Amino acid sequence: MQKEEIAHYFKNLQDAICSSLEGLDGKAKFQEDNWERPGGGGGRSRVIQGGDLIEKGGVNFSAVHGDAPERMLSALKLGGKQFFATGVSIVLHPASPMVPIIHMNVRYFEMSDGTMWFGGGIDLTPHYVVPEDAAFFHKTLKETCDRHNTDYYERFRKWADDYFYIRHRSETRGIGGIFFDRLAPGQPAGKPGSSELPGPDKEALFAFVKDVGETFVPVYSEIANRRRGDSFGEREKTWQMLRRGRYVEFNLVWDKGTKFGLDTDGRTESILMSLPPVANWEYAHTAEPGSREEATLSYLKKGIDWTKQ
Amino acid sequence: MQKEEIAHYFKNLQDAICSSLEGLDGKAKFQEDNWERPGGGGGRSRVIQGGDLIEKGGVNFSAVHGDAPERMLSALKLGGKQFFATGVSIVLHPASPMVPIIHMNVRYFEMSDGTMWFGGGIDLTPHYVVPEDAAFFHKTLKETCDRHNTDYYERFRKWADDYFYIRHRSETRGIGGIFFDRLAPGQPAGKPGSSELPGPDKEALFAFVKDVGETFVPVYSEIANRRRGDSFGEREKTWQMLRRGRYVEFNLVWDKGTKFGLDTDGRTESILMSLPPVANWEYAHTAEPGSREEATLSYLKKGIDWTKQ
């Protein structure tokens, strides 16, 4: 299939997700903002605010193209002259501290010299880790992966652990999920050393990426509905604001996608839709021994296989 | 003078500044946190919170040394094996949106191969720019500079404009101030092409850096006292929270000092003392035409010579 078809699918995916999220929220509606990129292409940013479930969320679609900026070529270590990039990117910050923050992204990139790849992933950042929800989340992602390649989940959950890592805090952003980048047709899709060659074709990769995109609503709806009725007080709100501060730290200091966007003069407001409405910082905050906050911190590390918990 | 003498001066400067700031605030007191660096040296972090004037502020002293980490050598493009670094770093977030955020830093760095330099600066980030205060601030800095070298102010205010620039927003962090780095003995201190050679000796540079450090309290006290009684409401608080969001964006995305600290495994809590207690993000916020918020944005650009306003 052609790049136009992929962009078309992503645009419809944005529609479907926004419609589902409005239903899930039950109160707030998305506001839409259409924008054009001076060098070519544009996007459709959608923001939801002040909802019953979602305090602030963004669902962004873009399909941009044109002369590849120098900074882009060097960041991606590419030759070629013209680029095309399309994707859907989502971050939801729920009002309740008992409901996790979620992030999803699916994307496709190609250069005029024929280089092309898919990337994406879903990861969850609970303010309070609930092991049964974490297990449900990862098992669902594993099922999605397994439908396409039984090596994917293991490989991509490790990739998520490594990617969503706040190095200066020595903690993961949340409980991870899956992350993948530069999945290209014909390349081995399995673990290093796997016998799977020459690897999936473009159709198969696109089918996988679609499946990831379509996993987002059901997996998040289930978890949000499990937790949205849970009671909380000032203590939990305070903790949520501090965890949001960590989310900001990850996104602005370590997230390669954010950095790439800002470095290559992407649309700032769309890139920074991922930031929470409010975040707090407190000097040297420590969790009380034996508390739920401390338990959560103990889960923010690499290498936990939630499908086996 | 030896490095120990410089560190000793900086430590006393921290004491003097904290004492003055407690007097200025009138309510809150600093909490102290002594810490050691595993590889050598340590610091004394002081935080003030919930004051009458200062909502959250940090005044950090450190003097660290040891084997230079690889990442440090490559970031600074240095040879040598052992490093020594000492400095005082301050950020104050006032409670009132009518009082500006301020940042000050003085620092000294040397390597075992004899390379050495001073760096530092003061810059002001008003939530609402008041031109007469901006002019007073810059004129005071110019007087400090002029006592040492009449080329300094012009050179260092431009450096501040370039350094404290939020590229992805196309705006300066605030109204600038002075910034300088790698001021080394014997190097020309004036503008490129200036006849001033071989440049100031180490004593002269240290005298300048001391003067910068000692300018901080009087210049900020004057501005804070001018504005702390000004009335404000919800509108101004909302704007303050959004401007604090921009402060976070600058510090986490662009500030080389923060990045250097986090990359070289500096003490995270001391480095991130610069972050505000609370910050907000709102999608595509725009200032009302003709408002004070819009006027403020019009001042957030490079090249304004406030000493001539």
Oligomer: homodimer
Radius of gyration of chain A: 19 Å
Q: Write down how many β-strands of chain A occur, each being a DSSP E stretch of 2 or more residues.
A: 10
Greatest interface and its participating residue counts: A-B, 33 and 33 residues
How do the strands of the widest beta sheet of chain A line up side by side? 1-2-3-4-5-6-9
Form type of chain A: globular
Structural class of chain A: alpha+beta
Q: What's the mean pLDDT score of chain A?
A: 95
* Terminal residue distance of chain A: 40 Å
**The biggest beta sheet of chain A, please?**
7 strands, antiparallel
Q: Please, how many helices of chain A?
A: 9
Supply the key terms.
homodimer; 10 strands; 309 residues
Q: Can you give a write-up of this model?
A:
- Two copies of one chain form a homodimer.
- In chain A, the strands form two sheets. A seven-stranded antiparallel sheet of chain A has the order 1-2-3-4-5-6-9. A two-stranded antiparallel ribbon of chain A has the order 7-8.
- In chain A, helix 3 packs antiparallel against helix 5.
- Chain A is of the alpha+beta class and 309 residues long.
- The first copy, chain A, has nine helices and ten strands.
- Helix content of chain A is 40%, strand content 25%.
- The model of chain A has no long low-confidence stretch (mean pLDDT 95).
- Chains A and B meet through strand 2, helix 6, helix 8 and strand 10 of A and strand 2, helix 6, helix 8 and strand 10 of B.
- Strand 10 of chain A pairs antiparallel with strand 10 of chain B, so a sheet runs across the interface.
Q: Layout of SSEs?
A:
The structure is a homodimer of 309-residue chains.
Chain A: H1 3-25, E1 31-36, E2 41-49, E3 54-67, H2 70-76, E4 82-94, E5 101-111, E6 116-125, H3 131-146, H4 152-163, E7 165-166, E8 171-172, E9 177-183, H5 202-227, H6 234-254, H7 256-263, H8 268-271, E10 278-280, H9 292-299
Helix pairs in contact in A: 1-5, 3-5
